[in-house]
Design a protein that fits this description.
Blueprint: E1 7-13, H1 17-28, E2 36-41, H2 48-54, E3 61-64, H3 70-80, E4 85-88, E5 94-95, H4 100-104, E6 113-122, E7 125-129, H5 137-142, E8 150-153, H6 156-160, H7 171-181, E9 187-198, H8 209-223, H9 228-245, H10 248-255
Parallel strand pairs: 1-2, 1-4, 2-3, 6-9
Antiparallel strand pairs: 4-8, 5-9, 6-7, 6-8
Length: 262
Amino acid sequence: MPRRPLISIITVNLNDVKGLERTLKSVFEQTWQEFEFIVIDGASSDGSKKLIESHNEKIDRWVSEPDSGIYNAMNKGIEMSTGRYLLFLNSGDLLNTNDILEESYGHLAHEEIIYFNVLVEEKDQLKLIEYPQQLRFSDLLYGTVCHQSVFIRKELFYKAGKYDETLKIVSDWKFLIISLFKENCTYKKVDLQLSIVNSEGISALAENESLILAEREKVIQDHFKAFLKEVEELNDLKFLVENLKKSRKINLLVRLGLLKKF
């Protein structure tokens, strides 16, 4: 009986043959190859299927069929996967270096979520995003951790639920905030840059900002409504402290030793 792979890499694609080609190359060139590779294509009409077929021997499982959206496709990948940890590296995204999986796989042992730093590709430049060692509720309330930088233990999807297909943009964020702060899953940070994220995704488009906010608000109201009052009060205090730090009178009192620096 074949041994269960440690990692399943899942790539979702729809009519992005150039991005898909970059992602495939990034995966194929890894020095450590003991992973399962799955490609979910949404019946693309731009030659993506032909590209996938040309690399059939390097892809463990793939389909090219219609789906109802990116999260439906990602959920298909979850169902098809057999790895202990899943990494979603979608079309156009890259692994940072050819040996990053070799550097990383030893960290995948006990925790349900293992997250790394990420590089975001913006106009031929790379912007480093470093995540904190400890994740607070406010970190996810106002930000996120890119799914391309996160290894997720497969069983967590059956505890916290798979990606919500009723959401168009923020379902990966919903999964993380519920896993971390409702299911209290175990996690750790690894201080390496795992992936390079294509900044042209749907969530990065300015015209989708209002939809992102609306979907996030619905998730918070449905799952974390009791926390909102405390979060608002903490934000008010934070705003007050930041303004006090800018006060000339407060700074003078600190310099005179009449007030401790804060």
